[in-house]
Each structure stands twice: as structure tokens, then as C-alpha cells.
User: Fold this.
Amino acid sequence: MAPPTRKQVVVSVNPKKKPWEQKLPLHNRWHPKIPSVATVKTGQVFRIDMVDWTGGAIKDDNSATDVKHIDLSTVHYLSGPIRVVDEEGIPAKAGDLLAVEICDLGPLPGEEWGFTAIFDRENGGGFLTDHFPCATKAIWYFEGIYAYSPHIPGVRFPGLTHPGIIGTAPSMELLNIWNERERELEENGLKSLKLCEVLHSRPLANLPSTKGCLLGKIPEGSEEWEKIANEAARTIPGRENGGNCDIKNLSRGSKIYLPVFVEGANFSTGDMHFSQGDGEVSFCGAIEMSGFLELKCDIIRGGMKEYLTPMGPTPLHVNPIFEIGPVEPRFSEWLVFEGISVDESGRQHYLDASVAYKRAVLNAIDYLSKFGYTKEQVYLLLSCCPCEGRISGIVDAPNAVATLAIPTAIFDQDIRPKRNKLPVGPRVVRNPNIPSCSYDGNLPITKNPGATGS
Amino acid sequence: MAPPTRKQVVVSVNPKKKPWEQKLPLHNRWHPKIPSVATVKTGQVFRIDMVDWTGGAIKDDNSATDVKHIDLSTVHYLSGPIRVVDEEGIPAKAGDLLAVEICDLGPLPGEEWGFTAIFDRENGGGFLTDHFPCATKAIWYFEGIYAYSPHIPGVRFPGLTHPGIIGTAPSMELLNIWNERERELEENGLKSLKLCEVLHSRPLANLPSTKGCLLGKIPEGSEEWEKIANEAARTIPGRENGGNCDIKNLSRGSKIYLPVFVEGANFSTGDMHFSQGDGEVSFCGAIEMSGFLELKCDIIRGGMKEYLTPMGPTPLHVNPIFEIGPVEPRFSEWLVFEGISVDESGRQHYLDASVAYKRAVLNAIDYLSKFGYTKEQVYLLLSCCPCEGRISGIVDAPNAVATLAIPTAIFDQDIRPKRNKLPVGPRVVRNPNIPSCSYDGNLPITKNPGATGS
Amino acid sequence: MAPPTRKQVVVSVNPKKKPWEQKLPLHNRWHPKIPSVATVKTGQVFRIDMVDWTGGAIKDDNSATDVKHIDLSTVHYLSGPIRVVDEEGIPAKAGDLLAVEICDLGPLPGEEWGFTAIFDRENGGGFLTDHFPCATKAIWYFEGIYAYSPHIPGVRFPGLTHPGIIGTAPSMELLNIWNERERELEENGLKSLKLCEVLHSRPLANLPSTKGCLLGKIPEGSEEWEKIANEAARTIPGRENGGNCDIKNLSRGSKIYLPVFVEGANFSTGDMHFSQGDGEVSFCGAIEMSGFLELKCDIIRGGMKEYLTPMGPTPLHVNPIFEIGPVEPRFSEWLVFEGISVDESGRQHYLDASVAYKRAVLNAIDYLSKFGYTKEQVYLLLSCCPCEGRISGIVDAPNAVATLAIPTAIFDQDIRPKRNKLPVGPRVVRNPNIPSCSYDGNLPITKNPGATGS
Amino acid sequence: MAPPTRKQVVVSVNPKKKPWEQKLPLHNRWHPKIPSVATVKTGQVFRIDMVDWTGGAIKDDNSATDVKHIDLSTVHYLSGPIRVVDEEGIPAKAGDLLAVEICDLGPLPGEEWGFTAIFDRENGGGFLTDHFPCATKAIWYFEGIYAYSPHIPGVRFPGLTHPGIIGTAPSMELLNIWNERERELEENGLKSLKLCEVLHSRPLANLPSTKGCLLGKIPEGSEEWEKIANEAARTIPGRENGGNCDIKNLSRGSKIYLPVFVEGANFSTGDMHFSQGDGEVSFCGAIEMSGFLELKCDIIRGGMKEYLTPMGPTPLHVNPIFEIGPVEPRFSEWLVFEGISVDESGRQHYLDASVAYKRAVLNAIDYLSKFGYTKEQVYLLLSCCPCEGRISGIVDAPNAVATLAIPTAIFDQDIRPKRNKLPVGPRVVRNPNIPSCSYDGNLPITKNPGATGS
Assistant:
């Protein structure tokens, strides 16, 4: 009896090779014209390997120089596109829903390590870039389901491993919508946007650019490549097709219902995270790694109309739906930090959940730094440990209330407030890997440096 | 042997009486001069009763007329202030942390019901007021730990019951900070704030007002009352003292670490919720009820300096910390809706978690309305059921990603997407309690109507 | 709008009064002729109070004299019987299933305490009576959902509160089956039973006895009373009607499907436990208390035939079914002790789960006594804390494997094995309440003393 | 920077080869003289592969003929022994505790399938062999973390994967104790044991036998082999050294504290289970598979004396301790079946948890067979799905109460009792793989056929 589910490897990668040297070509843009590299049938269990989101640019060492000078025009390297057909061989069609079940996932054998990094404020930045402008990184090693870091001693936790990116190919019409609205923001954003004063120095959007562009089977430099590269969307933000949604609970046993915009669905995936905290606050914030997914697809014919409701001017303004299953690490006790929408200067914002969450994260960083850690260590930790970021209250004008909940069991000391004074933390390991940092205490308020990669 | 923990009722209320007729007077403002009504010792288990946040203004009936015309200048009615002393009788002092453990809580005996309401857009509004401008309400009945509503059939869920408000009295200095920053927003907010275009018609802030003011033992109309009423902060937003943080997980077994700003700590509590969803989106969005708390206090001397870090120009810019315990209803399977920071008009916002969450909630409402519910019913349900609102990604410019996760077990039908067409839902119960609604399909874009109560 | 679920108190008790002085009479035997004291309708939420199983015989003090001399002929005092009718007033009938949902439960207001006791080996005994022959007790105080004991310092845990007993009235035919099979055991057990050498000195069964008998509305001493008392089954063991099943997870949100043997179902309940460990090993092993239940009934007509399968010579040999809901305290980490079916003398038993479990419990007691506790304290603790007793392997001849899992979070110290030597436990509180104990180290092997109460 | 935890494969197996053809020899007996095949250091993460417990005797097909005629003298094939030394190279010593952490585990790549079987009552039998005497089997296929079976349609569940066997080598003294006590049972058991009337036809013990014996590096047929084979203990039962404890929760993140009896600890492991129910009732009851473990060891010097307490005539009568971590599939709703210690003939047993559990399992089988399954299918299912077998009450003479709790989410239909009649189950798939069965309805009561393999 042939076991019907024996899984098939449809994309394999060699993590020792460069992204552009892989047998099946990778890509780092969204565009309907990027050809699929494999076809799978519904009901079939198959495996996809992927490189880490930087394609090996960050090394397993003690220096953050690689982080500081990373070329962000090349991320994220994705595996795919994968074309999906049903049992009769009929491909998914625009208007269908593609249901993707994550049967299993993990690091690649022999590559049981990952990294978490803070980007330099002039090259990527992050949610707290005005507080932490200098590039740094932490290396994590995996002991099966657990991760620990020599750079952040005293913590060890099980991974809620997930792909940061999974998405279908956009149609040309959807792609145009993306490019238009993001260009509008890029051009007009600074004069109107309040939040920019808070998160001042990061690019507002990441518009198409030929620099760093990799388009799978399309030969680089060809006329077709040139045309597509100038149109194709960057993979940084999540959008209607799913993409970089960074939902940390999309782990084993989850199901993802993706809208289908082109024949075959042509979904791609990448950006594997051994673990991530809600918000992925340091930007390169998960425990980033290469890895594999075991997937099983189903097609719900006509499912977009049946289950999704457009939320905008066209029928394409939809979002995926997700199902979370019973197989997550569970924690019984949480320490929770709160933030309200008053920023660090004392200024009141109106029901702004981003400001509130920023404040919650800052509160948590300050608190945990009392237990023997540097603030950079905690910022890295909160980016990647299984902490939960919640919008607790969004209606009590003028303060949004956001919370950050941290499972206490990940620490090897009791981090709860206590009556008696804290013991002096024995675990201060000065993070060894900060390269020479050009920022002094008086952080310069820089202008928007423009889109990365431009 | 005298059981040392026999609990003592320090505040009792009669839910049949008006807020101003209670034996121990209630209050609905924050001010250091509101006298404490009782003193408790650390280590002692004691009980506080509270009226619902409207003090009985909303009735257990089928009409939303009470909701439509509610006087919001009078909310929230709080029990307290409670003065806390240690075992030697020495009161909590400014700079201490007050640890409040919630030993138990619940509805008042004989009052096993609650309400969830949508406010009229001209009188309170809510997170989705531009989509749902008409007042409506749902009544919930409790069967022990479970709630169900005749207005939203087919759902039943256990309560994660919690007080929406618990906070210490502010010092005069802190109060001044609040009033100043909120006045600044009220006066200058409209011209600068982006989000106002989305959430256009709600008041930006709720400044002090004598109208509706209740100040506990301070006789109404006295000179002192007049002075305090003109200074005292409204209870709508959560702030540095805790207050209306609406954190839905602060249930049995939780601990709240509140900063102490005045001698005795003088904490107050109210706004009991039988259950609430993250965000409490419809504003009167929890299952609002009268109820009781059983509490136990501890004082961590000097704890503010030890554990909290000011995040602003003065040492007072702090936030409380919370501990969540092992006693929550747990759900194994969740259906998750995603939103990105592109609004309903298709406009791109920059890493705005509020816009992303709004979109996630709208997606969930549309989806669930396919199962036999009106959208108003779902809006009410998502405000009060134990759903989780997460900030999943806050760094991938320009799209923040927010998610709303709904436990599937609260429904009596399978709400997951499926291959075969949905059965026609038999449960459409046209919500009977919408009063005549003056809004038509073309919602008027109103100017900011000013602070409630003014 | 009249809230349809406003609960009604159908049985109230006064814990200050004796069991036989309560307004609605209690009973402590199973018999079809005990008249119902109240009638409830399906769908109605109602409340039943109950005294503790001893009816107040054990006091909140430091002496175990009351435990040592307790009259076990009078237990358990039950509230009921309750007659159940459907919405049309038609009573439950033999052959139906009675579904009882536990909507809520807890201690009686003002009675927030309980006790756990070890019985003297000549008066009740317990699972480990050959190791712990002396009467002792621990008093527990409740702080809302938490319990702690001055007699067992350093532990505090949330209660998984439940009724030890809930059962329907047996038919005369079923009662006869019980009496016959238990008499057979009582008469012939000693010569054939292996386990008796292990658990040697406890009564084999507890046959009907007029001594201590309480029969509700049947006047004591009447002819009818005399007849019924001589037939009525003791409440000690669980049987086909449910009864003393001591399933610790039957807490809030659970449902119990009881077979109906007589018209009206006539169910009774009692023996409230604030908390219990699997096995309730010390016999008076839960945290015993008075308390209340809020219940809602449903009748599944013909449900016995539909859902239950007789497992014996008559259609009456059935067992109830239970549903456990999502509202339990959850623990993330457990320390597990194992036992195999080799007894303390080194003798091999054949797949005997009772022997294996005994060994697991003894292992746990010895282990925990290394952390500053006396063995009596641990025996009491394991009887009442939320520990799980599992049959892990029952097929690998000759060793059954049983396990006892203890949640580590209930202790205020880390009880896991560690590389470095244990700190000397500071918490040895010599249990103060052991009355003079007549047993020396060489425990006398006594003959079966006969049924308690005879 | 060399990642210190890069795991090393210390035992690899080829599942296509016979157990005796593997590169590193396997063994199927416990004896101190079986030489270790590899050495590991504490702190090192390493990997051990293992064949399934039968070494490939059961095939992935539709016939149970292989099950019926299996040679049970050869089980279980174990990988090891593994010698453990500390960081300085000093081996574990008798009296130490060996802490083994399970960092990860799973099926072997390409071998994503397993089997569950009922043994013929004359060749192995099982817990319910008197009810299910005929050999049968179900094949399971794995889709990542999920398993499903074509032989038991309508169920799918995540695996709580674990090794059924992990144990240290016994000392000669301990081995002698085992052999003596099991021989005593084998010789004298039938006349004294009550339970044998219930579980009548299975071997009482499995004494040493040269037949089928495999001793690792010891050449078969040599003088040494002959001597050891006649002394070495069978691996069927769990004992003081751990061994076949079949604790279903020993999955990812668990820690096992094993007593050390010989220098180097020399632990072995095998009998991988993709999933198992408590009790593993059908004997070949888990989802049996080949697989791998990733482990990390620690040595607690002198830990036996520090943490274990001998429970018998010698210091060797101890049991391992286990720690269970936060990474298990979790289920919110359970259907629970109860059994009491009255057997199927209606006979009363005294506090016999084995009889009670048998009754609970039989009740569950009968119940679930109402949903379209054959009883054999349910018996197989309850052996291997993540159901929990509890000792609920062990003190209420004469009835022990045992429960079997089944997570309702593993079924694709609602299996709870309901008011309305059951729909006719569409899923009756007559189990196709029962070979000709020589048992008729009147099951012959056979005498004890003696030890397997003799």
C-alpha cells in the first residue's frame, strides 16, 4: 500500500550557496509574470526549503558589521512561485481561495542556528530606531525545539516557528494599486503624517527598484527582467496577497486561506522565523533562519466571493484568513507591560495604537534591564521571544492602551516585582558585537532618508 | 482559630439605587482631594462592590433609546478611593508600588446580566462609528460562568471577567500634566491629526467638566466641589495611574502593580466587565455589569523607582505592570482576521496599527455576517467576546499588520471556511432594538462635536 | 424583559446548624423511596447549597481529635433529591439521560475554609494507611480562587472546585444488585483478595446500617425509616448512578450525563471539594468544605439506550458520561513520579494499577519531604492539590506503570532536581495537630475491622 | 564561532535493513554486560535513531497476518547502550542521576508512517484480550505533526510523540532482583492472583530466554552470549531503570531523571511512538514507528541518594522522575468515560484500579461504536490517540473509580450526547485487515499459555 502522503520535496535549497546559485531560482519581488518553479496538487504533502531572508548575508559570528552594512535592496529571498492544481489537474483560478496547511516546519538539518538584529537607523532602522540607532545582533543556537543565545544569557525558550512570508502572486491590477498608493505615501507622507515625528528616520515605503532585484527564472538584464523589475513590488510590507504578515502563531497545524489573483495561485514563501514576538519590533527581529515547510493545499472554488469582503474601491482589497491550531507552546504566567498613546516627550496622541505599543515596549525594556541585561539585549529579546502584543483598548479617547505580555518561564530568574530589593544580576554580558557606533547620546533627528535600495 | 483571611466587605452597593444614593458615596472623576471612603491593610482579603459604569442608566430591555440618549458626562461611576496601610498601619506613600491581587470577582448576586452597546455617533461613538452610526444594544444573561444573549443567538462563552478600571489617585502635579496635554490635543488636534479623517466624528479628548460630576464625600455645589470638579480628570482614558486600561485578562488570580502618587494610594475601581474583546471596539463594548471584587493588597516600598522607569519629562510618566495567572478560559482553535494599514478608501497609512486593527475588525465583521448575523450583531459580539487583538507586525513599512483572533468554540456552528457552500444560516434574528436611526446610507462627515459632556 | 435565567435557590443550608436541623432535610443514603425535596425544570438555572460531607464534624482548629473519633456511619450528607421535569412538566423517566451542567460553584459566603485529613487506620484509614496510620488534618483558607494552609506552608494554588458526589436515585432493582455484590465481597473478600495484604486494615465494603442513617423527609424511627435504612446503600463508593465518583475536573462548565432509574431522576449532590488530587489518596483527602452549585438540567429522552451500554448481566450496569470544558486552571510544567506494580516489600504484582499508583504516591511523598516537609504534610498535600494520577501503561506484563504529576507552580520554591545540593528547607513546620498516636514503628497488621459504622 | 550545540548523530539506523544488520548493533535485553556502542558528553546535543519496536516485522499493508504471527521473543529492539561522561570525561557512576532532556524527536525522514495493532490472544494479547481476541491492525500516515489512518476514517490528531522506552543498564544485583521476583510471580501467580480471572490468558511475566535474543556487540552463539542471554531481562515491563514506561507525555522538552546503576550509565532507548493513549491498551497500542531522538544529558552526582528514596528491601528499589514541559498539543474539551471496580460479570472487586480502568475503556468503546465505528476500530483508536487515563478515586471502598478522557477535537463529527437522535454514521469502514479469526462468540477461557517466546 503506497502511503498517499509521502511528502515530496518541491523546492530544495543549499544554504551554503548564494541565493542566485540555487538549483531552483529564488525571487525577491512580487509580480504576476514571475514564472512558477513547481506545480503541486491539492491533498499532496510537499516540502519547500528556503534560505534565510537575507540569503546568507548575516553570519554566525560576534560582529555586527554585516548587519550594519547589509544591502536591503535584496530582501526577502523567497522560494516559489508554486502553482497549485486540483486533483483533476485544473489550476486554481482568480477568485478562488487557496487553503495552505502547515503540516510541519523547522530549520534545515545542520543549520540549527539563527540571528536577531537591530539595523542601523540609516540602513533599515526599526520600531525603536530613535532609541537604538546602532546596529547589533544576537546569535541563537537551537537545541531541538529550544533556542538560546550566548549574547543574551539566562533565557531559553521553545520556538513558535513560522514563515514570516507566505503569499500569492498579485494580478497586474493589484500590483498597480500597491505601487500607486505606496508612491502617494512616499511623496506626500512627510508633510501629513504625525507618526513620522516619532519614527522619523525610516523610509516611508519601499518602491520598486531594479537594484538587487531577483526574479526567478527571468534572466537578469533581459528586457523582460528590466520591465518587471521596474514594476515588481518589494516584499517588505504585508499586503492583500498575504506576504510579509509576520503573524507569529502561523506554526505547525495552522491553515492559511489566501486569495487567488492569478491562474495557479503561484504562491511563494520565505523569511522563516524560529521564533518571533508580536510586532517583530527590531525589524530584523525574529530569530531569522533558513528552514523548511511541509505543506498541504486545498482550493476553495469561488472562495474569495464566498468568504472575503473587499474593503476598498475594488474587489481586490481583501485580506487572508488564518486558522490557528492546538499545537503551540503554552505558558501559564505572564508579566504584562502597558503603554498609552502619550509619547516619550509627554505629548498626547489620539487613539494611536502604534504610539501606545511603542511605549509598552519601552517600558518592558527598561524593566528587564534592571535584571542584569543591557537595553539592546532586551530589545533583541522582545523582538524574538514568544511575547504577545495586544491592542487592549482602542476607544477611550484620547488614549489607546496597548500591552506587551512576556511569559515569565523563559527566564532562569524570577523577574516579577517583589517586596525585597533585587539581587544584583550576575548576568550582565556586555553585548560584544556592536561595531563602532557613530551615534552619540544626542541622537540626530534625521530627515527621511528615502526608500531603502534607492 | 480565627481564619485570617475571612474577607471583609469594605464597599457595598445596592444596584437598585442610584449612584448618588449609595451608602458609601461613589465618584466619577480622578482627583487627589477626593477623600478615601475606607482603609484596608496589606494581606487582608476584602471585597468591593461596584455599580455598572453608567450607574444603572442602561436597562435590561429591548430598546436602545437609553443608549442613544445616555448622558456620558457622568461615567464611570467608581467605588473608592480605598486607602491602603501596611501591617503596622503606615500608609502607602508616593513612590511606592501598590500590588493588588484579584482573588475573585463576579456579578452581584441577583444581578446576573449585562449589556453591550453601540453608541450613536453624535453621542459617544466607537471605533467603527463611521460604519455603525446608530445606537443599539444587546442584553446578556449569565448562567454561572457562561453568557448568552437573546439578541445574538448561537453564541455562548465563558467570561474572562475583569474590572475595566482600577487606578490610584493622581497627585496634583500628575493631574496638571494630564489636563495640559489633553487640552493641547483638544485644541490643536484636528489640524494635525491624520487618524481623525478615519475616526472623524468622535471627541478628541474629554476635559474636566462640572456637568455630571460626582466627587464622593465632597458635597455637590460646595466651593470645594466646584474647584475640584473644574480640575478633576475624566475617567474615560487610561493613564499613568492605571485607570480605564480595559485589559481583558485582568481576571481571577491577576496582580496589578500600581504606582502610588498620594499618601494611602487611594485607589478606586469600577467598570466591571463580564467579558470583553481586545480593543472593546464598540466603546460600550464589554458585557457591562455591576459586580464585586475580592482583593488583597501589598505595598512594595520605593517600588516605583525600583521597578518603573519614567518615560517622559517627569518622574511621573510611568505605567502600571500586571501579572496574569493560570486561571483563564483556554481555547484550542482560533480563526484569525488580518488588517493592514490601508484604510477603506484604499489610502496607504504609515505603520499605523490603529488603521490596521480597524481593517481587521471590519474583515471579521463582514466574514461572520455570512453566517446569519447582521453586521451590528457581529460588531457587538467582537466587542465583548474573548477575542484577541494583536499587533503582529509594526516594522514592515508602510504596512502595520494587526490581527483579530476569534475562538471558534463560542459558536454553535462551524464558522471555518469550507469547500462546500455555506448552509443558509437559520439564525438571522433581526436585531429588534435599534431606535429610529437618523443616519442614511450616505454617512455625513461631521466635524468634531467636542468633548462629551461639554 | 424578565431575564429567563435568574437563578433560583432550591436548596439552601445554614452551615452553623446541624445536618438534621436544616430547613430542607438532608440525607446520607441512596434509596428510591427517599422523597424529593424540590422540583426543577429543564433549562432553568438553579442553586443548591450543601454542607461539608461530615456535616460540620471537623472544626477549623489545630487539633485532629475530631478526625480521629469521627463517626463515619453518618457520611456523606447530601442535598436533594431533586426531581427534574421538562418544559411541559413531564418528569424524567427511567431510561432517560439527565444532563446536568455545572454553571458555577464555590464555597458558601462566609465559609471560605476547608480541611484535609488523614483518618486513623482503625477508623476509616486511607490509601496509605499502612504508612500513615495516625489521624491528622490540615486547615485551608481561601483567598478567592486560591487556597493556602497554615499547616502546609509554602504552597498556594487555585482550586479546581467540584462536587465529589452527584448521582441519581437508584431503582430498587439496582439497589439490590449493589447490596448483593458488596455483601459478597464483604463476606468472601478476605480469603481471595490479594490487595488486602497491601491495604490490609480498611473495611472491604460499607453495607447498609441504620446507625447514623438520615433519610430526608422520612421521619427517623418510623417503620418506613427502619425498612429503608436497612436497605439503603451507603454513599462511600461511586456506582452506576454516579455518586461519589470524586472526579476532580467536574468543575465550572462541566456537564454530567446521569442515567435515570426512577421517575423524576431524583438526583442528589454533596461532598464539595475546593480542590482534590486524582485518587483523593488520604480518603478525607480533598479540601472538604460546604458550598453551592449552580446547575442547569436537560433531559435526553431514551438516552440510556441511545448512549450507554450495559456492562454486566442487566441493563442497569452502566456508568455516567462527563464533559469537561475550557475553564480549568492550567499549568505548564509538571514533575512526574512513577510507580510500578512491585510493592514496598519488593513483591511483584501482575498489572495491578492500584499497587503501581501507591508506589508512585509514596515516591512523590519521599521526594517532596526532602524540601522541608514532613511526610504527613506531603500526603495531605497530594490528596488535595491539583495533581494528576495516570495509568500510563497497563499492558506490559507484569508491571503496570502509574504516574503522579504535580504542577511545580504551586510551590514557592523550585522543587526540580538540580546539580547542586538542595538548600536546607526553611519551611519545616512540624504539623502541630497530630493527637497522641497509638501506633509505633512496627505497625500491627490488623484484621479487617469490618464495615465502618457497624 | 563554532555553534556549540551542532548535534551529532551517535546512532543511525537504516529502516530498510534488519535489526541485526544495522551498522551499530542493536539489542533487545537488559544486562550490565552489553557493551556501550557510543559515548556522549554532558551538555552535548546528539541524535539517536531507532527502528520500530518490532524491527520492521509489521508492514505497511492491509493484512494483519504479520501481527497474528509475530515473534514476540525479539522485542523491543533498542539503540544503545550509550555511555555518558561529564565535561572532564569522567563517566557517570552508580548512585548518580542521569538527566536526559528530549530536545526534539520524530519519525525518520521518508518513514512517515506507523501502525497500531491488536495481538491475538494466544500471541501477546492486550488489556481487553478477552473481548478482542483476534489480531488486527491499523496503518497511520503522518502529515507533519498530524496522523490519520485509512482504517479509522474521520479522525486526525497531532502526535504527542515520545519514546516508549528509555532506561539505564541494570547492575547485576538489580537484574537478579528482577529475575527473582518475576519468576516467583510466573510460578505462583495463577493460584493467588485475582486479576488473572479477568485478564486470564496473557503471560504473567516474560522471563529471560535465549530465543530471539540480540545482545549488541556480543557475538551470537558465543559462550558469553549464552551466559548473558540466560540472565538478561526482557524489555517488556518498565522497571527501576525506567525502561518501557510508556509515559505518553515524555515528548519534546521533557526531562528524564534516570538512576545510574553501572559506570557510564549505559542508557538505551527505543519503541518510538508517534502517539499513544494512557495505558496503551491494545498492547501494540501506540502508533508504533521508527524514529529519532535529539537528546542532551546532564549528570547529577550522587543524585540517587539526594533525590530518590528506595521503596523496598534494597537501595536499588527506586523509580525515575520526569519533568513535563510546555510544548504539548492542548485540547479544550474532553468527553470522559468512567469505570468502577465491578467487572463485566457484575462482580465486585476491592479498590482495583485496573478493573475500573478496563470498565472505563469498555464504556468508551461501546459509546464511540455508536458513531459509525466497529469496536475494533475504537479499541485501536483509544490505544493510540492522546486520551488520558486517570485514577480518579482510589479510597472509596469498594469501588476504585477510573476515567478515560477523550479530546473531542480529534473527530470530524460531534461525538457529544445530544437531545436529538444520532445521524446514521456514514463512516463505517469495515476494518479490512482481520485475518481469519479462530475465535467464535463463546470465547474459550484458556489457561495461562506461559511466557511469550517460550
In short: Residues 184 and 205 of chain C are 10 Å apart (CA to CA). Residues 172-192 of chain C form the longest helix (21 residues). The interface with chain A takes residues 330-333, 409 of chain C (CB under 8 Å).
